[in-house]
Predict the structure of Cren protein.
Amino acid sequence: MGGKHKKYVYVLREDGWYVKVRVLGLDKKEFKKHGKLPEDPSKYIPVGPKVKNPPSTYAIVPIEKLPEEAQRKVREF
């Protein structure tokens, strides 16, 4: 995981693009061990540009792991 204080992840969309997302209340230890993400869709805030090649230091999360409303936010970005 990368970014400031390990609060950001890149989400892989179906079209092959990545979107930078701020995850509020992310338990860094649980995420690192089990890939566990918060269930509350309000915890996901798409912030960054849509990119083809994310930085190698950031965690990559497939869009299917996000709650449905968070997926919608990322797709609209």
Summary: The longest helix spans residues 68-76. Strands lie at 8-12, 18-23, 44-51, 60-62. The longest strand covers residues 44-51.
